[in-house]
Amino acid sequence: MAMIDCDPVQDSFRQWRYETPLKILKGIVNGITRRYLVGEGVNKQWHAPTIPHIWRDLTCDLHEITMGVYTLFNQDRTVENEMNEDVVAALLSGSRHGWKSVSLATTAILGRVTMSALAMHYSTLEELHVDGSKDLPTWYLVQVPSSCNRLYTLSYTNMCDGSSVVDGMAFVDLDPDTGLLKPWLCEGSLKMLDVKIAEIPRPDLESESIVAEAYPGQGRETQSLVYDRLGRLTHLEALRLGNRYGRFYQHDCLEMSLESGLDKLSGLKSLEILDVRKLETKIGIKELQWMVENWPKIGAIYGLDDCRRHVEAVKWLRENCPKMALERFL
Questions:
Q1: Mean local confidence (pLDDT), 112-136
Q2: Against a cut of 0.85, is the pTM above it?
Q3: Which stretches of the chain are DSSP H helices?
């Protein structure tokens, strides 16, 4: 589809030019897939489409948006430029009836401008996937599940290096007045959570990367609160906490042991997939026995190291649950 050549309405978009293609990969309209390519060509400078008018006319009936930025490089292999947050926000503002599914694959720093645009779709949003954004603040993640009563998929990853993290205590989302967990509107709908929870003190491990405790017992206390939050998501079918895109093991993570509070997840009766890849967990035989007993639908546990960390546990699981899907440790 040829580029739409028209003058932007807002000043922030009049100055927006870049040399990389922005692709709106797909939109679903009444079950029929329509594909749009906004801008095309290599080493061409062009303006964004008019956001308030032309763009909204194009997307008025769309329910799904996928944005990907394919970065061009100079001859010395340095990055030419990056996507502007204002542009992401403007594109998000395009739907008249509200996005149901939003996928962002971008290197842009997503902050309050993006959140303000996304907030317009909280009443319709069902899926949110964010991959690659720089320094995405935890409140971004927390605001979405706490505000979207139809959300069933929430995924925040960084496939490039696995470095994206969410602070453990921020994820807990306590009410500062009562000290209790704030209710999340998605508690009755969320089925898939994919997030790397970090900044949890683990004094039981010896590593330079360990987060130090501010006071004795802080690590277990933080873990207990994180389990409390996860335990309220009783419709979860897939819980992906693993650092599967990272090269190294994550140490500031949940132990996933009964001693640390794993039993607080006993209400996840619909859970089918647990992903703890590249996490320094303490899953043993008793933890696996507990999972099998309390999660009747569990069919896959990814991230058990059958070579060193979880040898006996994996052996027990294979003997007692031969149909359980296990990803061989690499």
A1: 82
A2: no
A3: 11-14, 56-59, 85-92, 112-119, 138-147, 168-172, 218-231, 285-294, 311-320
